[in-house]
Amino acid sequence: MTAILEMRGVSKSFAGVQALRDVNFTVEVGQIHALVGENGAGKSTLMKVLSGVYPYGDYEGSIIFDGEERRFRDVNDSEALGIIIIHQELALIPLMSIAENIFLSHPPSRLGVIDRDTVYRRTQELLAQVGLTEMPDTLVTDLGVGKQQLVEIAKALSKRVRLLILDEPTASLNENDSAALLDRLLAFRTQGIASILISHKLSEVARVADRITVLRDGRTVDSIDCRAEPVEEDRIIRSMVNRDLAHRFPQRTATIGQPVFAVQDWTVHHPLHRDRRVIKGVDFEVRRGEVVGIAGLMGAGRTEFAMSLFGRAWGERISGRIWLDRREVNLSSVAAAIDAGLAYVTEDRKQLGLILDADVRKNITLASLDRVARQGMIDDMSELRVASEYRNRMRIRCSDVYQETGQLSGGNQQKVVLSKWLMTDPKVLILDEPTRGIDVGAKYEIYCIINELAEAGKGVVMISSEMPELLGVCDRICVMNDGAFVGEFTAAEATQERIMRAIMRNKKIDKKVLQGDLRP
Amino acid sequence: MTDKTVALPGHTGFIKNNLRSYGMLLSLFAIMLFFQVMTDGTLLQPLNLTNLVLQNSYIVIMALGMLLIIVTGHIDLSVGSVAGFVGAVAAVLMVRYHVAYPLAFIACLLVGALIGAAQGYWIAYFKIPSFIVTLAGMLVFKGLALAILAGQSVGPFPPTFQKLSSGFIPELFPGAGTLYPTSLLIGAVLAVALVYTSAKSRARQASHGIEVEPFGFFVAKSAVLFAVIVFFAGLIASHRGLPNVLVIMTALIALYGFVTTRTVIGRHIYAIGGNARAASLSGIKTERLTFLTFVNMGVLAALAGLVFAARLNTATPKAGAGFELDVIAACFIGGASAYGGVGKVGGAVIGAMIMGVMNNGMSILGIGIDYQQVIKGLVLLGAVCLDVYNQRR
C-alpha cells in the first residue's frame, strides 16, 4: 500500500509547553487510522498542524501528502488537496438548509447567481452517499446530532475529500447513529478515501480501525497494525496513561468524618434538548475532611453534574435529593446554594468565574458582599481588610488588591476565584478543573490549599481530567462516564489504568461490588 | 506584564495615572471657556447660567437612570417618549380633572414605574433585547401621548406645579439687593462639606496604608473645587437664587453617586455588566436587578417628564421627542462603556453638561439647528474614540 500522508518529526510548542515532540504519523490510501490518547495528549494539535490551522513555519518537521512535501498557509490550502477535518463542535449553520450548508463556501453558480437546480441535485447525490434520505431544503436545526454529523461528512465529500479527519465524531451520538457513521467510514475505505478517527471509545476503534496510534504527552508511544496483530485494550490503555508522576503532591493525613454532602438519584436534562438525560439518576456522597475526585473524559457530564447541584445553574427538569450536613435542602437558586454552604469553583474562570475588568478586591468579595456591608452599604475599609487578608493567605501575587484581575497570571486568577468562594465560608467546595491552564508551581499551591480545606473539616469535590492529580490529591475517586458513575476507587486501590479501563469499557459495573470495596 | 499599572513614584506619576478621571472635567471647562470667549461673556451671565440649568435638568435626571441601564449592558430608547407621555398624563390629571398637584405628581411617578416594570419584565425575564423592547416602547408611548392629548396641547398647569421648574428656593434674608444670600450660603456650605468629606476619606485611606494622592495635589484640587462651587453659587445667587429643580437634581446626583459606589446593590449592578454569567454564579440575582434598573429608569423618566411639562407650562404631543438621544449621548461622552460594566454617575452628569453647554453656546452664537446636530454628533464620536484609544494604550 502507498502512503497518502506522512508526517515526519513534527514538533510544536506553545509558550514553552511542548505539545508535540518528534511525532511520526503515516496514513495509507484507503486506511482508517485511529488516533487515541488522553485529553491533552496532543491529538488535536497534531490535526491542526496537518490541516494548516498552524501554518508552515509554526511547527518543526514536514508533511508529505501525495508524495510531495506540503507547506500549508491556512485551512484553505489543505482543503484544496482534499484534507477535510470535521470538528467535534459542528460548523453547520442551524437556520440554513442542508443544501445551503453543503455548498456554503463554493456554491455552483453562473455569473455570481447560485444555480439552485445543480445545488439541489448534487446535494441529493451527496446525501445518498452518506445514507441520508432527508430533502436538501430541510433546515439543519431540524436534524438530530447524528444526522448533522452525516451532513458534515456530505459537505466534506462535496469538496472531493481524500483524507477525512473526524474529531470524536460519536461523542454525542447514540449507538445506532454511531454505528451508521462508522459504516460510512468503512464504505469510504473501499472508495480509496482515507480517514483519521480520533476517539475515546476503544470498542468502536477496535471495530473499524486498520491501525491505531497512541499519543501520550505529545509523543507517539505505540502503533498497532490491527490486521497483523490482535487489538488488546489493556495494551492501549497502558500506553495511554503510563507515565511518571512528574508532579509531587503535598502530603496530608486524612481524618474523615460524618457525611457532609449527599446526593440521591440526581437526574438532569439538557436545557435545549429537554428529552436528553445528561445526568442519569446519580448517587454521590462526600464526608467531612474528605477529598473526592471525579474522573472522566470531556463530555462525561462532570461539569453539568456539579453546576446542576449548585443552585440548578445548569440544566432543566432536574430531580433528586440533596443533604447538606445531614439536613435535606432545596437548592433552587445559586444564592440558596451559597447560603446552604455549597461553593462551586468553575472550570472556566475567565467566562464564568471572574469579572476581569474589576479589581482583585471586588472579585474576592463578590459572592459575600453582605459580610463587609451594613444595611446594604459597603464598608470599604473592612472590604479592603478582608481582601488583603485573602491576598496574603492565598499568596496572590498582585501589585495591590486594586489591580485589575485580568492582568494577573492564570494561577493568581485562580487563587482570586478560590478566595471568593472561601470567603463565603462553605461546608462543601466543588472544584472544577482547579489547575487547568496554570503552571506547576501554582498547581502545587492549589493542592496545598485543597489539603488545608480538607484538614479544616470541609468536604472537597475535585473534578479533573488530569489523572495523576486526582491520584495525588484525592482520598476517593469516582469515575463518571456518559452521565453516570461507572467506577469508584479508594486512593489505595486507584491507578490510572483502572480508571481509564472503567471509562473505556463504558460498562456499568455493579455498584454494590464497588462500594463494598470502598468501605470495608 | 503588570508593571505599567503600578503607580509610578512621585507626584507626576499620580497625576498621570489619574489624568483620565479628570480629563472629562477638564474638557467641560475647556468647552465652557471656549464659548465664554466666543459669546463675549454671555454664557456665564447669571440669567443664562440659570437657564442652562433649567434647560438641561431633565436630561441630567434621565442620564442618572440611563447610566445604570448602560452599566448593566442594556439600553433604553423609550425614555423620551415616556417622559412626554407622563407629561401628558400630568396635564390630563391636573388640567382636565383638576386632581391636586401632589396626588397627580405621585400618580405620574407610579405610571413611570409601571412603564419601566412592563419593559423591564420582557428584557430581564424573557431575555428579549432591550433595544427591541424599548424601541417598541418608544413608539407605543409616543402614540399614547398623542392619543390622550387628542393631538392638542393641554395647559396651563396650576401655579404650584409650575414652581417645580420655574420656582426658586425661598430667600431667608430678603432685602440684600440683587444678591440672594441664602443661595450663596448653601453653595458655600456644600463646598465646605465636599472638601471636608474628601479630606476625611483621604485621611482614612492613609491610615489603612492605601496610596493616596500627594498632599500638595490634594490641597490644590480642594482649592479649585471650593472656588468653582462658590463661583457658580455666586453667579446663581445674583439672579433670583437657586432654582428648585437644581436642588432636586443635586440631591439625585448625590444619591445615585452614593448608590453606585458605596452600596451592595450598586456593586451588583456593575458586576452584571462586567460579566453577567460570573455574577449569576456568584449568587447575584441578575434578572431581578436588571428588572429594577428599568423600573428606576421609568420613575426618573416620569420625573423628567414632569419637570419638562412644568417648564413649558403645557403638555404637547411632541414633548420628549429625541430626548433619549441626548441622554444616551451624555452617558457615552461621560465614559460609560457600550459593553456594560463601566461608567460613573459623575461622568454621565458631566457628559450631560457638555451637551447642554454646547447646545446653549451654539444657540447664542446663532449656529443653526442643522449644524448644531452635526457638531454634537462629531463630539460624541470623538469622545468615545478618545476613550477607546486611552484604554488600548
TrEMBL record, chain A:
The keyword Transmembrane does not apply. CDD domains: ABC_Carb_Monos_I, ABC_Carb_Monos_II. GO terms for molecular function: ATP binding; ATP hydrolysis activity. InterPro entries: AAA+_ATPase, ABC_carbohydrate_import_ATPase, ABC_transporter-like_ATP-bd, ABC_transporter-like_CS, L-arabinose_ABC_transporter, P-loop_NTPase. PROSITE patterns: ABC_TRANSPORTER_1 (PS00211), ABC_TRANSPORTER_2 (PS50893). It comes from the Bacteria. Residues 5-242, 263-507 form the ABC transporter domain. It holds the Pfam family ABC_tran. Involved in beta-(1-->2)glucan export. Transmembrane domains (TMD) form a pore in the inner membrane and the ATP-binding domain (NBD) is responsible for energy generation. Belongs to the ABC transporter superfamily. This is Sugar ABC transporter ATP-binding protein.
TrEMBL record, chain B:
Pfam families: BPD_transp_2. It is a multi-pass membrane protein. GO terms for molecular function: transmembrane transporter activity. It is found in: Cell membrane. One of its GO terms (cellular component) is plasma membrane. The chain crosses the membrane at residues 21-39, 51-70, 77-97, 103-124, 131-152, 172-196, 217-236, 242-259, 289-309, 321-342. CDD domains: TM_PBP1_transp_AraH_like (cd06579). Keywords: Cell inner membrane, Cell membrane, Membrane, Sugar transport, Transmembrane, Transmembrane helix, Transport. Coiled coil: none annotated. The keyword Nucleotide-binding does not apply. Part of the binding-protein-dependent transport system for D-xylose. Probably responsible for the translocation of the substrate across the membrane. This is Xylose transport system permease protein XylH. It comes from Bradyrhizobium australiense.
